[in-house]
Amino acid sequence: MASSSSSSSSNSNGGAASLEVAIVGGGIIGVMMALGLHRRGIKAVIYERAPSWHEVSAGFAFTGAGRECMQRLDPGILEVLGRISQKTDASTSNSYWDAYHPRTRQDAEDESKALLFRTPNNKLLFWGCVRSQFLLGMVALLPEGTVKFGKQLVSYDDDDESAKVILHFEDGSTAEAHALLGCDGIHSTTRKVLLGADHPASRPGYTHIAAYRTMVPIDVGIAALGEKVAGGGCMHCGPDACLMSYPVMGGTLLNVAVFAHDPSEFPDPDKMTAPAERGEIERLFKGWSPHLADIAKLYPEKLVKWGIFDMDQNPPPTYARGRACIVGDAAHASTPFLGVGACTGVEDALVLCMVLESAQQKTPNGDTEGDSVRQALQTYNRARLERGRWVHRSSREVGQMYQWRYGPTGRDTERIQRKLERDSQTIVNYDVLAPLMA
Q1: What phi and psi, each to the nearest 5 degrees, are found at residue 269?
Q2: What is the torsion angle, in degrees rounded to the nearest 10, for the CA atoms of residue 197, residue 397, residue 291 and residue 304?
Q3: How far apart are CA 19 and CA 2, in angstroms?
Q4: Residue among 390, 288, 290, 267 nearest 340 (CA)
């Protein structure tokens, strides 16, 4: 296993030496990464800073293309998602609504007066689920001993003599592996060490959007926002704010998120959350259509708001150096508006599994893994850098567009629709493995 006392051994596929991989971070992508590597005979250990499994109970979704990557990583991952997700199909659509101008609830639910447009789901085909439920479902597939809790990475050394990475943790312990995969999220320690603590890209940037999230029973959501929310994803647009909703948990719950433009700096950029009150949402939607003006009733009096951060202001110049790389949000954290942040991390995981499997096959009879691993991670970097940057840039633009703050589209419905269609085509038509063939 990936520890200071381990050594290379032959895998079950023949004479190739088994690579040992350290995964920093036990979130969605870290666990997926471990499952994909284990399936390919590569030893992986997850080092998670928390004392136990923990994930926010918020909703998120995966496209059809993202699910294809899951199938290639490990079919068990897709089986878990299939059991717990609310599925869209080619007959459903996402709808976009003017939530500001209609003056009555009747007008707000009248498609001829409030619906801006629909986008069919015959391409993206989102499956929505609750993050914590998906994580725990995947965890059940991990081999025993795959995770070590209470391991906060402090630094690492890339040691040429041993051809390994030496990880140093806050509790004073160390571990070693042939490769370090930083799946440690938007505030990635791996990224800070890889780029240097003073590098602008070592820290994410505040997008000046705050989010107020909740989940409510589907009947409560329908009573507040109308029957339309039960049928698929809805985006309610207006000046300086928007509201996103979609069903999860087999259609029994409605995931609701209010996003508000925030001109000030976020009070705690490290924690990314701050205490808030229902009155903030009430003031935000004052003067909007009645159903949005009343949306605050779905929230408790005291709540938490989330600062939306991403990597777009200072994107990393590289995702890999030596025997270490960054993956998922650690590399290209994006806003949620494009809806493919998690899917992009799944793409990362598949590419990394492919290149590390190839590296393992190039190390017969216990030869040093140093060169093959470094080359593999550089191949990953070349394959993923442009894609990651496109995702966080486009997602930021789409978020501004929903709040009528994006200059090229303004409030022009046709321009908004055209941009969404172009972005959707870029998502759907992208060939994840094509860069590996170049």
Answers
A1: -65, -20
A2: 0
A3: 9
A4: 390
Q: Which residues are catalytic?
A: 213
Q: What is the pLDDT along the chain (438 residues), one digit of tens a residue?
A: 444 333 333 444 444 568 999 999 999 999 999 999 999 999 999 999 999 998 766 778 898 899 999 999 999 999 999 998 877 776 777 899 999 999 999 999 899 999 999 987 666 788 888 889 999 999 999 999 999 999 999 999 999 999 999 999 999 999 999 999 999 999 999 999 999 999 999 999 999 999 999 999 999 999 888 888 777 789 999 999 999 998 877 788 888 999 999 999 999 888 899 999 999 999 999 999 998 888 898 999 999 999 999 999 999 999 999 999 999 999 999 999 998 999 999 999 999 999 999 999 876 544 445 689 999 999 999 999 999 999 999 999 999 999 999 999 999 999 999 999 999 899 989 999 999 987
Residue 86: strand pairing partners? 128
- Interaxial angle between packed helices 370-402 and 341-361, expressed in degrees from 0 to 180 and rounded to the nearest 10: 170
Question: Residue 162 corresponds to which amino acid?
Answer: S
Q: CA geometry: angle at 202 spanning 199 and 205, to 5°?
A: 110
CB atoms within 10 A of CB 188: 28
Instruction: State how far the Cα of 435 lies from the Cα of 350, in Å rounded to an integer.
Output: 13
DSSP 85: P
Cβ atoms < 10 Å from Cβ of 80 = 23
- Cβ count near 428 (within 10 Å): 14
Cα distance between residue 349 and residue 53, in whole Å: 20
Backbone angles phi, psi at 40, to 5 degrees: -100, 15
Counts of helices then strands in the chain (DSSP H, E): 15, 20
Rounded Cα gap, residues 411 and 407, in angstroms: 9
Give 279: exposed, middle or buried? Use CB within 10 Å, 0-12, 13-18, 19+: exposed
User: How far is 63 from 125, CA to CA, in rounded Å?
Assistant: 5
Strand ranges of the sheet holding 302-310, from the earlier edge strand across to the other edge = 115-120, 93-98, 234-238, 241-248, 253-261, 205-217, 302-310, 273-277
Rounded (10°) angle between helices 28-39 and 131-139: 30
Q: What single letter denotes the amino acid at residue 67?
A: R
- Is this prediction's pTM over 0.85? yes
CB 217 within 8 A of CB 260: no
Residues 6+ apart with CB under 8 A from 53: 26, 135, 136, 139
> Which residue do the tokens 């199938």 mark?
71
Sign of the alpha-carbon dihedral angle for 35, 37, 39, 44: negative
